[in-house]
Description:
The chain has 21 helices and seven strands. Mean pLDDT is 87; it is low at 1-29.
Amino acid sequence: MPATQVDRLAAFEVRQGRIIAAVTDFGDRHPLTARIWGWLRLDFTGVAFAALFFCWSLTPSLLPRDWLFQGIIGGINAAIGYGVGCVVGWAGARFLLADRSWWPPPLPVLRAIKVAVPVAAVLASVIALVLAAGEQRELAALMGAESTTTSGYLRTILLSVLVAAALIAAWRGLRDICRWVAALLMRRTRMPLGLARTLGVLVVVLMTFMLIDGVLVRGTYAFVNQVFSLQDDTTRPGAEQPMHPAKSGSPESFAAWDTLGFEGRNFVSRGLDADELTVVNGTPALEPIRVYVGLDTAPTAEERIDLVLAELDRTGAFERSTLVLIPTTGTGWVNPTAARAMELVHNGDLAMVAWQYSYLPSWISFLADREKAAAAGKMLVESVYERWSQLPEDDRPDLFLYGESLGTQSGEGAFDSLAEIRAEMDGVLWVGPPNSNRLWRQLVDRRDPGTPEVRPVYADGLVVRFADSAATIHEPDTPWLAPRVLYIQHASDPVVWWSPDLLFTRPDWLSEPPGPDRLPEMRWFPIVTFWQVSADLTNAAGVPDGHGHNYGTSVLDGWIAVTQPEGWTENDTERVRFALEAFADADGPEK
Length: 591
């Protein structure tokens, strides 16, 4: 190394030593402070950035957050901000301040900074929390949800400090292991310091990745799968084996009741019978057909799909006027409101078919099982379509596709293009599509210029439409050709808007005017917004109907728009909506 560089490095180290000496001197005068400081070893630039990131995390996101969720995401973001601040502080001292004669400042100034930075950070955090509590109440009022209090929200600070401290401690532990590995390599091989540090980092990163991927992730996945497979053996209170042969799980069914799984038994037992439909609609109804096959119904996917087709034949599903394919969410869940809406609209003259492909709930399947979801949807659609297409064209039912949440991703997986959908289906309704859906993403990215991402218009709404409520389904006021494809998506639904891209890229929907149920105060901040929306995912369905991932009876309006039942009126829609709400109240909350 040239002499000038050696001198500059030495000068830099001397100045850094003066700062450390200032800290030590401060501790010598205050023994208790010295002990605490030796344990904390806080970087003041890191503290400043931690407070900044924490305050950013308090800004509103898509859904109201209570103090517990805010404390968790606030702590995560504060720890990330602390790390960013440490890097910025080191780079500034190393490259910007190393040659400055006035740096480091006198010891009294350094001590004043040591006091001022934490105090300012705490004050800024408290003020931001008070303002955030007000914004959370405003957002809760917008959705008709339960609101928080300012005093209760102040608990966030303590939880955030604990979460941030745990994450910083874990990082420091990994750093110390890297140093230990580097020292070991230097002793054993006498390799240069720089190379030893590099190899130490690589070894620790590799071992950490292997631990997380090989032990934590896969082990957790296997454990969770086992836990939910046990839950799949239970039955929802009130769900009883159907006796009518039009239902899977009945005594005549090829799919035994005890093999349908929790959601399958729930689906086949909660349908409306012909008598109930006749009372609501005022005209004689048919017994609706509900076909379902669970994971335990047969050992392989091929055998299960054969049972699906056998059940369709047995129940006479191909003889009905309407056949609905329902790719499910992870556990095999089918929205009971949507299923009943279909039965009421068609007065029982339809068959619905679904099957289970996983034990895992949607949010876990979304993270770990997306390819499996797409494969399951493709197998269901292709198998039923092949059988359906062999029927005489004048004697086969209208073929529709419905999916909600991860079920939309499963359904999209059956097609390569919009043209293929229109060639095979008589209409499609997709509700709450995840942001990672391939076809949805293509359509949104190619939306007509000037239309917002939150409610795009594609090709003047000629074939595909996007709506955020029942009132906007028929916008724009232009021709809508059949077969129709409709996406219903709320501006406040984190399932629709969550993406890893939020880490470092501001999406269009946060640059454009907000949707009807999102506060205009929501802003994009690097890293922070990602964790905010990630926290929103955990409460996506915990808000009132019409917001978040809770679509209520808007699926009824969507279904009517896609299927266009002959002679249907607005009075019919409201009659069915009233019945759906009454049935939902009688059922109670989903468990």
